[in-house]
TrEMBL record:
Binding, Mg(2+): D7, D9, D126
Organism the protein comes from: Denitrificimonas caeni
EC code(s) of this entry: 3.1.3.-
Catalytically driven reaction(s): D-glycero-beta-D-manno-heptose 1,7-bisphosphate + H2O = D-glycero-beta-D-manno-heptose 1-phosphate + phosphate
GO molecular function: D-glycero-beta-D-manno-heptose 1,7-bisphosphate 7-phosphatase activity; metal ion binding
Gene name of this polypeptide: gmhB
InterPro entries for the chain: HAD-like_sf, HAD-SF_hydro_IIIA, HAD_sf, Heptose_bisP_phosphatase, Histidinol-phos
Protein name per its UniProtKB record: D,D-heptose 1,7-bisphosphate phosphatase
Amino acid sequence: MQLIILDRDGVINYDSDDYIKSVDEWIALPGALDAIARLSRAGWTVAVATNQSGLARGYYTVPVLESMHQVLRDAVQQRGGHLGLITYCPHGPDDHCSCRKPLPGLLEQVAQHYQTPLDGVWFVGDSLRDLQAAVAVNAQPVLVCTGKGELTRAQAVPSNTLIFADLSAVADQLLS
Ligand SMILES: O=P(O)(O)OC[C@@H](O)[C@H]1O[C@@H](OP(=O)(O)O)[C@@H](O)[C@@H](O)[C@@H]1O
Ligand SMILES: [Mg+2]
Ligand SMILES: [Zn+2]
């Protein structure tokens, strides 16, 4: 199967250092929804793996998070696409869970859901922890320069990281 996994904040939607705490604060990045729909229409399975420590911090609730994700799903569907599994880590840094990126637990949940290996699967993120999670499961780390991506690019990223301007450029590459 053609599977691609996306980080959410900073890749699909604008990120904020104050967290994305409501549906109103959830604003898609230019071209991101069309990119997901283009991939989906071309037969790709598009999943999402996102840290959401704002839940543990009490900044928003699961119903609010789910409403953001319904907006995302509806917007992709309106473009003729389908968004697959959205898996998230609800924990905080001190919860010592196994799913908070850079740990690969979210990616492993995607692999389990689709019963497919992750070797070489593109995981597209804007933070170093996204790239590290990809490397941990032998997936392909892909950095986009939206969200925190430019800051991340200035750090030491995994040597095999692919770098693109944004999610639209990632879709262009995969669909070329
Ligand atoms: O990029 P993804 O994984 O989709 O989601 C990131 C968000 O959960 C938030 O993650 C926080 O990091 P801490 O969880 O506080 O370390 C901060 O980076 C926030 O700016 C950001 O909105
Ligand atoms: Mg991010
Ligand atoms: Zn977790």
